[in-house]
Specification:
The chain is mainly beta. The chain has no helices and 16 strands.
Length: 179
Amino acid sequence: CFQIDEKLHWHDKKNNNLVLLPGYSNYLETVKPGYDILEKISGETTLEGLMKNQKEIIIPFEYIYIENYGKFLVAKKEFGKKVDIFDENFKKIQNHEIHILHLVDHDTPTTIPFPKLFTVANSANKRALMNLDLQFLTPFKYEFITPFLEINNYYIVGMRKENGSNYLFGLINEKGEEV
């Protein structure tokens, strides 16, 4: 896809010409050949969706963002609400209440390579550790899960004391085991 005069076009290789994609404002990413995440402006809101061959809508344009993690896509309609998760074939696979999902080292200023693990939060804002296969490695019980920058594959976790006054800290490994 290409932006020409602030309009989105795609290259039709078969006919070797550029085709206007009316109504779409931006190309974001090719998830796999023929499947692109695009943006569409709806009123004052920019929404994202997934198109097949620039003709068929696969994931509707009702999400404020769609993130591609290779084995799955995460789509969010509204901040503070649960996310939708789609598999490699773009089928919705979620049967849980994940409200936040980030790579565990998402905002961590480090050069240490961490495995592809995710911090996820539920509606009660409790955190759990999840792997790339969408398997929960811990229950939703932590207030936070943060990479331990001194040692690869270990994470600092915190839980509130029962009276809510303070945190109890601990370590878990990349398998979610407390150490």
